[in-house]
């Protein structure tokens, strides 16, 4: 037994040595895209990168960003960096850049003229620190969507709503038909996300910016946000029976017609697509909850840790270039359900919902994503508040608003 | 090194081999445990975010900690879980051991069965009990399958009960070990004592309560330390079984520390919370250790 273990250890060691020299242009890419639609999308990146003669080593981390980010950060700070990793647009990598742990990608950015092709500009700004570009934005995701199951409303005998108020009004009919009116998964970020969607829809863009950009505690305690909390109170009553955890399980309730709708970002579209559903026929999407057609420009970007191997650094540049290549952008984003970061690509294959999103984007009705405005610390505090609010009927909207204003007051 | 009289070897050099052998452990204890603790406490007074920085902000992190509802819920849960788990694992463990000690048949088989859960990690325990207590697959489903349609047993999704669901899983996992320790203690009691008690006509329960248990004091102390350290660090069980939910109803301090240090990228807040955990343990351990060990010297 002991001898066998020893031999196994030796073999493992030998295998490591055997891999090391051959992996000069192998690049390990860490991400948290594991649901059906996401995995199909990330395979497009892998295919395109492999076609350049390098090799994409997939390091998917199951669970949402909250689970994956700590693992990635600890690998980088622990001195075992991967070749590239996914973060959301925004402030999540701020300190890693300050600490000099990430590779400066300005060379590729100037060569490929990212400053001209990436739109909206805020995406590249999020990547830029002191005039240097540190990440490659790959897609635009917006949170402000309400996904509705046409089947569920048919079963309940009510027309498919065209805005939030109609949806709330239709809730009793849905409940009578044995449906969950609103599906929200148990993961904390989903409840926070739903609330952050309600803010611009109910209170408007200015209030949203005042609260999250200026961190104005007075606005957060004001009457406009009180209205939002009232709407959130409706939402929590409508979602009281939803007993699932992951966002895609909640989306699945909508796809199968067990739930009326779900407030979720446009990544949910990938799930509808994988299930073979058609926008407009099987499901309906309402950007900005059908009230305020605004979308946020969040999404994902790839960052590249500093590596000591010149070959690998070169491969990192190739990867960044490949990810923003027009063909890759279209192939990836169609599968992912997101919008390309370049404005100059042909999206004839886009479906109805995506076209709606593109129109809003072209009209410039955009708001920054909360990840671009808040630190992870603030987002986490908001998660704690909203997951409690949505699962505790005895927590009044007034009390919750007081705590909300406090978090905003302490945010930086 | 010391310039003491040459005739009598200094105390420092007595048992030199043993002392040299323990140098690695002493260094580990000093650098890793003491050093790490000091480093953590110092950084809990800073506003470190993703990476540790020495930018002191006084007691800000602690003020925020004690006004955070989630931390208060965590502490409350730890108190409930801790006190009940301490009482019940000692009680059940001792009862099982006393029953096994009655020279019953198949003692080995029973002992193995009771100790078996301890071979499972907390993650596996948590998952198993998550399924058992899940209303759609577990106990509720089975009982309803027997025809009792209105039966409702759903602790993990009920905010008031969820911590007891976790307690149950913890007890199931841990009592086997307590039983084994207790059984070893019971076997250590001389048969003559039992005989003497029987001659004096003392009933069995009285013998246990007033003679055997006081004699088992060292075993009890060992067990207490093992159980208590398990309570303070309870984390994986909660993550596997409920991940803190529903809402924040089953949060525990160790989970708060992890979530704020890594997920929220706020090391300062996590360090403050872990320092509070250390202080709590110290408040309990120090007076007790003083009484226990200080007295003997």
Helix segment tally of chain A = 21
Low-confidence spans of chain A: 10-23
Q: Characterize the biggest β-sheet of chain B.
A: none
Total beta strands of chain A: 13
Count interface residues per chain for the largest interface: A-B, 28 and 22 residues
* Average of per-residue pLDDT values of chain A: 87
Mean pLDDT across all amino acids of chain B: 88
Oligomer: heterodimer
Give an overview of the whole structure:
The complex is a heterodimer of chains A (412) and B (297). Chain A is α/β, with parallel strands linked by helices. Chain A has 21 helices and 13 strands. A 5-stranded mixed beta sheet of chain A has the order 2-1-3-12-6, sandwiched between helices. In chain A, strands 8-9-7-10 form a 4-stranded mixed beta sheet. Chain A has a two-stranded antiparallel ribbon with strand order 4-5. In chain A, helix 10 crosses helix 11 (205-212). Chain A starts with a helix and ends with a helix. The relative contact order of chain A is 0.17. The model of chain A is unreliable at 10-23 (pLDDT under 50). Chain B is mostly helical and 297 residues long. Chain B contains 14 helices and no strands. Chain B has helices spanning 16-21, 23-43, 60-67, 69-100, 107-115, 122-133, 139-145, 162-187, 191-199, 204-215, 217-232, 236-241, 253-263, 267-294. The longest helix of chain B has 32 residues, at 69-100. The radius of gyration of chain B is 25 Å and the shape is flat. The two termini of chain B are 29 Å apart. In chain B, 30% of the residues are buried. At the A-B interface, helix 3, helix 4 and helix 20 of A face helix 13 of B.
């Amino acid at each position: 037994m002991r001898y066998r273990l020893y031999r196994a250890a030796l073999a493992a060691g030998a295998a490591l040595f055997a891999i090391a020299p051959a992996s000069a242009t192998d690049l390990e890419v860490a991400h948290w895209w594991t649901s059906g639609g996401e995995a199909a999308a990330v395979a497009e990146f892998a295919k395109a990168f492999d076609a350049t003669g390098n090799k994409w080593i997939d390091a998917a981390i199951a669970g949402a960003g909250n689970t994956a980010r700590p693992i990635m950060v600890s690998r980088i700070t622990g001195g075992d960096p991967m070749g590239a990793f996914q973060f959301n647009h925004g402030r999540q990598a701020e300190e890693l850049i300050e600490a000099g742990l990430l590779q400066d990608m300005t060379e590729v950015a100037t060569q490929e003229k990212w400053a001209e092709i990436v739109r909206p500009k805020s995406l590249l700004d999020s990547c830029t620190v002191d005039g240097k570009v540190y990440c490659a934005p790959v897609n635009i995701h917006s949170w402000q969507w309400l996904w509705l199951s046409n089947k569920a409303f048919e079963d309940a005998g009510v027309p498919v709503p065209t805005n939030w108020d109609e949806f709330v009004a239709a809730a009793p009919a849905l409940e009578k038909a044995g449906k969950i009116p609103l599906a929200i998964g148990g993961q904390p970020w989903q409840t926070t996300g739903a609330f952050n969607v309600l803010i611009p829809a109910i209170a408007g863009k200015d209030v949203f910016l005042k609260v999250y950009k200026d961190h104005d505690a007075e606005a957060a305690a004001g009457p406009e946000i009180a209205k939002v909390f009232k709407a959130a109170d409706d939402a929590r009553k409508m979602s009281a029976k939803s007993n699932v955890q992951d966002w895609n399980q909640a989306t699945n309730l909508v796809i199968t017609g067990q739930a009326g709708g779900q407030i979720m970002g446009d990544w949910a579209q990938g799930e509808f697509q994988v299930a073979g559903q058609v926008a407009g026929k099987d499901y309906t999407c309402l950007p900005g909850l059908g009230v305020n057609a605004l979308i946020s420009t969040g999404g994902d970007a790839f960052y590249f840790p500093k590596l000591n191997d010149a070959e690998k650094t070169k491969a990192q540049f190739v990867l960044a270039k490949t990810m923003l290549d027009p063909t890759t952008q279209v192939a990836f984003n169609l599968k992912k359900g997101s919008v390309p970061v370049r404005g100059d690509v042909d999206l004839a294959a886009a479906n109805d919902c995506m076209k709606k999103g593109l129109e809003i984007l072209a009209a410039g009705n955009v708001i920054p994503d909360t990840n671009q405005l808040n630190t992870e610390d603030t987002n986490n505090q908001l998660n704690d508040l909203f997951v409690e609010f949505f699962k505790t009927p005895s927590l009044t909207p007034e009390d919750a608003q007081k705590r909300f204003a406090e978090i905003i007051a302490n945010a930086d | 090194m010391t310039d003491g009289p040459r005739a009598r070897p200094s105390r420092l050099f007595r048992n030199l081999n043993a002392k040299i052998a323990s140098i690695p452990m002493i260094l580990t204890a000093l650098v890793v445990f003491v050093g790490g603790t000091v480093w953590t406490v110092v950084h809990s007074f800073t506003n470190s975010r993703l990476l540790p920085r020495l930018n002191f902000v006084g007691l800000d992190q602690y003020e925020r900690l004690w006004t955070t509802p989630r931390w208060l819920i965590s502490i409350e849960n730890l108190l409930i879980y801790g006190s009940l788990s301490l009482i019940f694992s000692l009680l059940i463990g001792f009862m099982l051991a006393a029953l096994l000690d009655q020279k019953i048949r198949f003692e080995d088989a029973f002992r193995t069965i009771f100790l078996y859960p301890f071979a499972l990690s907390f993650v596996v325990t948590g998952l198993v009990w998550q399924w058992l207590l899940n209303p759609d697959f577990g106990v509720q489903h089975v009982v309803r399958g027997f025809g009792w349609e209105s039966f409702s047993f759903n602790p993990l999704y009920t905010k008031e009960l969820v911590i007891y669901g976790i307690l149950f899983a913890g007890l199931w996992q841990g009592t086997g070990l307590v039983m084994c320790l207790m059984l070893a203690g019971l076997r250590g009691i001389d048969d003559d004592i039992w005989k003497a008690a029987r001659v004096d006509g003392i009933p069995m329960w009285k013998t246990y309560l007033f003679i055997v248990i006081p004699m088992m004091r060292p075993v009890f102390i060992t067990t207490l330390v093992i159980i208590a350290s398990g309570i303070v660090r309870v984390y994986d069980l909660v993550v596997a079984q409920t991940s803190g939910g529903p809402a924040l109803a089953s949060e525990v301090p160790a989970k708060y520390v992890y979530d704020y240090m890594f997920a929220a990228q706020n090391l300062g807040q996590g360090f403050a919370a872990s320092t509070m955990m250390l202080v709590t343990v110290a408040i309990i351990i120090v007076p007790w250790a003083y009484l226990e060990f200080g007295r003997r010297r």
